[in-house]
């Protein structure tokens, strides 16, 4: 299965520079949707620039320790998701509700300095989905096992199960399935970042499958985990910046 063309789903003029919207404890994936409520002046300026140009915002995750006072701005995990604005509405006092869809996974190469803008930006390299030829014969089975393991951990609610059934019946590629499951489940932030940073789809699916199976065994053996694993509502609730 071919790898996507470079910068697919991105504007032809995309040069690897992105506007960064860092948030704590949030990891967004391609193929997922994330609402944001934007009100801080620097991020309002970021939004206005994005709306006037390429509609793109790169969601980044603040690195562990961001709560501690430091000199300068808190560190950002290098794995990011480039997103497109698909809906925008303005409320009172220059507050904005937007809905983003994840387009591409990327890795931050260098944060830009002294740009004259109040928000952060960076140069990134895209991480393509790679489907190794060696995994072709096992990929359909891997997708089936992954969806089966996912079913064991989501609520036994008719609407949720119907959505899963539709996903199972679709022709969605394995890479997109891993992204939807990875975003939906309440995994540890570090695991989500590992999934976001992995371009090899078979390795990503295997890591996700092993995690789902391990979590199901823990639940079956010792009752519910401290961190429950419900499916996130869709669309998910707005996240404040």
Query: What structural class do helix, strand and pairing data support?
Result: alpha+beta
The shape, in one word, is globular
Largest beta-sheet details = 5 strands, mixed, barrel
Strand content: 15-25%
Give helix % range.
Answer: 25-40%
Q: Could you state the order of secondary-structure elements as H and E?
A: EEHEEEEHHHHHE
Q: What is the arithmetic mean of pLDDT?
A: 85
Low-pLDDT segments, ≥5 res: 1-7, 223-239
Number of helices: 6
Distance between the termini: 38 Å
**Can you list the strand order of the major beta sheet?**
1-3-4-5-6
Number of DSSP E strands:
7
Question: What do you see in this structure?
Answer:
By secondary structure, this protein is α+β, with helices and mostly antiparallel strands. It has helices spanning 41-52, 139-153, 158-169, 174-184, 189-197, 201-222, and strands spanning 17-23, 33-38, 56-61, 79-91, 95-111, 121-127, 239-240. The longest helix has 22 residues, at 201-222.
């Amino acid at each position: 299965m071919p790898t996507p063309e470079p910068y697919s789903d991105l504007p032809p003029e995309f040069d690897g520079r992105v506007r960064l919207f860092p948030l704590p404890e949030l990891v967004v994936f391609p193929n997922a949707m994330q609402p944001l409520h934007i009100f801080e002046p620097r991020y309002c300026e970021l939004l206005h620039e994005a709306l006037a140009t390429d509609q793109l915002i790169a969601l980044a995750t603040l690195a562990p320790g961001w709560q501690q006072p430091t000199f300068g701005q808190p560190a950002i995990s290098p794995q990011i998701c480039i997103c497109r604005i698909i809906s925008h509405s303005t409320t009172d006092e220059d507050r904005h509700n937007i809905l983003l869809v994840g387009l591409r996974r990327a890795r931050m190469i260098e944060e830009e300095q002294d740009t004259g803008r109040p928000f952060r930006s960076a140069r990134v390299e895209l991480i393509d989905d790679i489907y190794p030829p060696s995994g072709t014969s096992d990929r359909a089975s891997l997708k089936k096992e992954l969806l089966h393991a996912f079913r064991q951990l989501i609520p036994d609610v008719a609407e949720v199960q119907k959505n899963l059934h539709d996903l199972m019946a679709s022709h969605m590629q394995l890479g997109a399935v891993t992204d939807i499951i990875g975003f939906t489940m309440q995994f540890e932030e570090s695991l989500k970042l590992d999934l976001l940073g992995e371009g090899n789809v078979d390795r990503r699916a295997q890591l996700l499958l092993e995690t789902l199976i391990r979590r199901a065994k823990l639940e079956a053996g010792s009752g519910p985990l401290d961190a429950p694993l419900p499916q996130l509502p869709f669309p998910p609730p707005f996240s404040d910046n």
